[in-house]
Amino acid sequence: MKIKIQSVFVLILLSVLSVFLFRNYFFKGQVPFPSNLLVAYHSPWADYEWEGYPNGPPNKPIGFDNLKLFYPFRKFTTEQLAQGHIPLWNPYVFSGNIHLATYQSAVLYPLNVLYFVLPQIDAWSLLIIAQSIIAGIFTYLFLKKLSLSFKSSLFGAVLFAYSGWMTVWSQESLVIEHTALWLPMILYSIERLFSKYSYANWLLLVLGLSLSILAGFLQMSIYSFTIAGLWILYRWKNKDRRQLKQLYPFIFGLLVAILLVGIHLVPAIEAFFGSPRGQVDAKFLFDDYLAKPWHLLTFLIPDFWGNPGAYNYFGKGFYHESVIYFGIPGFMLALYALFSESVSLKINKMAFFKWVGITALLLGFSPVGWLLYYSRLPILSVIMPSRIFIIAVFSLSVLSAYGMEKFLSEKWNKKVWLGIIMVFASIFAISWGVIGLAKMANISDYVYKWYFPYLKAINDPFGNFATVSYRNTILSSLLFGVTVIGIFMGGIKKYSISKLSYYVLIVISLVSSFYFANKYLYFSERKFVFPQVPVLTKLQEIAGLNRVWGYGNGYIEKNMLMYYGLYSPEGYDALFPQEYGELLFSQEVQGSITKQILRTDANIRQASEHEAVLGNPYRTKLLSLLGVKYILEAKEGEGKDWNTTEERFPAESFKLEWEDDKYRIYQNLDSLPRSFLVNDYVVLKDKQEIADTLFSETFDLSKTVIVEEELSFDRSQNCAVGTSKITSYTPNRVEIETDSRCPAILFLSDNYYPGWNAYIDEEKTKIYRSDYSFRAVTVPEGIHKVQFKYEPLSFKLGILLTSLGFISLLVIIRR
């Protein structure tokens, strides 16, 4: 009973702490979503005036992926599911792309049921707030199951739940953190199974593993499954009487979990190998995001190189990708656990997290992390290497709990504590020395280059960066000083003072974590969550199925148009068709085809204001081929005096459709319809030859298509080209009516992809890859109904595996 009461207390405490941390949501009506950034920074919203904010609302340059990826995708997913459709395909981005199979769309994640009972922004907010609560309570339960005391378990749980890693990723990517937070639950279920086999404990393991995959970020799932597998083997190896059959529940649990999520996993595997992720070299990621040795300083001074939440970050790469901070008290106690001698069973278990934590930390740093890149392991060699810090932070939080256990229950170890304090004091002294050197004008370039690579950044002419480092080092130094006092209190023999040391250390941890969080967390006004502006309202009225693009200062970030039901040729996502990416990237390399393209983006080459829309011949061809009928232009902004409007939008190719005081919408007169009929084709198989032909000035896109194999099509008949009309267009199904006096080829400027099937008058026909990345079918003369249906075999196989998973679950439970 006492254990249950303590667990309820921890759950309530974590909830209260999270409510306090997100008090702006509960008491001020603000939302943890970067909508202020949207209207202050992104076109077209930033070009309109907002009442009360003549210069735009206050914002932080954080959460860009939530704006251009996760939030618009969630709206599309929820709408499709509410209509009774499984969102397999997303027609709004990339000229059509997989949706469920992108993995991080998290279509089937159970916690997303909140989106069906609450407004999207409130469901989103509660899922963010719930992250620390879920991670914290299961970390506490796991530590308690390791036989740690209530105080030590609570300490470790709080450290992890409100660590810097958990804080920054709660703002950057909902799916990454929701995938990672199930690791404590998985480990807790494993520990329960080793203590006592029961169906409830086994189901908890299956649930944790399944949720980790369904949450939507494969990299974190791989980490969780790896740590879970290693923990199972480690615990089994250290059992007094180990038998192979003791592993059976864990093996079956893993297999059943994978079967259950087959509907999510199988399409994603297919998509991965057909995307740039499986083919583009990722060396640049390891160059940019493997941490350097001096990054260890951020264990103590997390913002030595500034913080984007305060608009003063001047470090390398994205700040959130390399956060390892979880509080000075926690770090010191983790080291105390490592360097104190003990042979108890508790410490035997602790050794696992010691080696896992050290290994994860090393793999996130150069040069050790390069082992992953050169291993050429699928997935692991092409992903962001620094994200493995989640394993390091969790392991160190567990070690901190062990350190607290030793601190509270054993004799104060003067030798170890003085050694740790001296090392930390030396690090702070060196940091102060670096800041002092940064202000010295006569320091040599040699020292800059070889000893203090960031020193030049700190030493700017106005001293701004040095001030940032100076201010943040003062705060961390004070926290270190108070932590040392708390530690020395533990060594005082008087019981009341010694007991008080625990509360000093946990309060310092919470204060430092909450200070860090308050600096980074963003809160915005609800009215700025993708608001309507006149230019978007007009596009919704006139665009229909035609695609839209923004020119120059009026460029609209990828995926954002999707929120308004507008179609775009561009896209930003983890997985998309390799061929489409190659075609669009060819604009950047004068029409050349290469597999080394952008991993996450497909762009129409952006045009600056000094360049005419038709200034790039490759872009001109693609705007026509992709059916980009409407192009936006901002009336104001830098570079507007470089060219006249007529030079940017010549009258022979563009017609002014609409304007207000901020924007113009032009109709692209050379844009091809989304579907049309042609009577001629050429067969080309070489990718470069296809691209060269497409971009040739003499090749008429409206009269001839390029296919990669011969068609059973008689093109000898000389008759007028017929007509095609899209009569129904939904994400997973397109219906087109054709009318032609002779056989013709129907072209649809949506991406060709495995799983799309075509039917003419309900009879199946072959789809040909056309014009490098699109779809074409041959149609007979007369009036016919052509249907394109997305019926991927990978999804059907996934359904089969999921069904087998549920059957296996029932069989095992009923044994």
UniProtKB/TrEMBL annotation:
One protein family per Pfam: YfhO
Organism whose genome encodes this protein: Candidatus Roizmanbacteria bacterium CG22_combo_CG10-13_8_21_14_all_38_20
Protein name: Membrane protein 6-pyruvoyl-tetrahydropterin synthase-related domain-containing protein
InterPro entries: Uncharacterised_YfhO
Protein's UniProt keywords contain Transmembrane helix: yes
Keyword field: Membrane, Transmembrane, Transmembrane helix
Bilayer-crossing regions: 7-26, 123-143, 150-168, 202-234, 246-266, 322-339, 351-373, 379-404, 416-438, 469-488, 500-517, 793-813
Origin superkingdom: Bacteria
